[in-house]
Amino acid sequence: MSGSKGLKMDDFTKIEKIGEGTYGVVFKGRNRKTDEIVAMKKIRLESEEEGVPSTAIREISLLKELQHPNIVCLQDFMDSKAKMDMDLVKSYTYQILQGILFCHRRRVVHRDLKPQNLLIDKEGAIKIADFGLARAFGIPVRVYTHEVVTLWYRAPEILLGSNKYSCPVDIWSIGCIFAELCNKKPLFQGDSEIDQLFRIFRVLRTPTDDIWPGVTQLPDFKATFPSWVENNLATPMKNLETEGLDLLQEMLHYDPAKRITGKQALKHPYFDNLDKYALPAKPERVRNIDRRWLIDGMRSF
Predict the structure, then answer these.
(1) Which residues make up the binding site for ATP (predicted)?
(2) Which residues are annotated as a binding site for ATP?
(3) Active-site positions?
(4) Which residues sit in the known binding site?
């Protein structure tokens, strides 16, 4: 990814987030070549169809003209349209599933899987981090608070008020992360619990007792919910192969009892052509991408 002046994202190191607004996020950064401290603004795109916000275009145009010691200097702007190598997506998803299966076999539910809690080393190995919300579980499934998991990665049973849940909530979160790795943006980007539910319903259809027995009895289910009747997951996942879409559908199955398990997911045909002996990932693939910008929050170390 290069800018209009030949600068590349690899020329900069992101240090910390210093601000966030309606249209984007600003980071403190450093130019690797000059050691100069810079501000790096990442513009938030609501959808590919809408394109770059007019406010961003206006800001870039004005800053190119306003050259003054007391006005911030625009060094360059870059358009990131490249998707992640899909073999790398497959490798990362497989590793996340391996890690969470290890937890589940030891009766631990992470409960807060999200990009910010995934670390990547220089060899491409994924490390699941931040077990602050993790819990050991027993049989029968224990009663928990439903105030867990960052909103965009929260399973529908939690959003609908269930206080009895287990390993399937982690699988739902991994499904959301898988989709985000493919598209470089969250699949369900709600700004409240009800908005999150409706965004899920629009894509996967509104759940009924036929496809999810007992859903209408959950505390926060309302008979007045809008009725979306079609599963449209293929629409936002156009670049995902058929087997990958099938795996994602299984990860995002409404009924937790029928949602694919970590063990089953690792055996899914989507991973049949993954060279498991080359894991964590082929180092040359990792070096050829900017790992700091895989998807928001994923951290390298």
Answers:
(1) 41
(2) 41
(3) 112
(4) 41
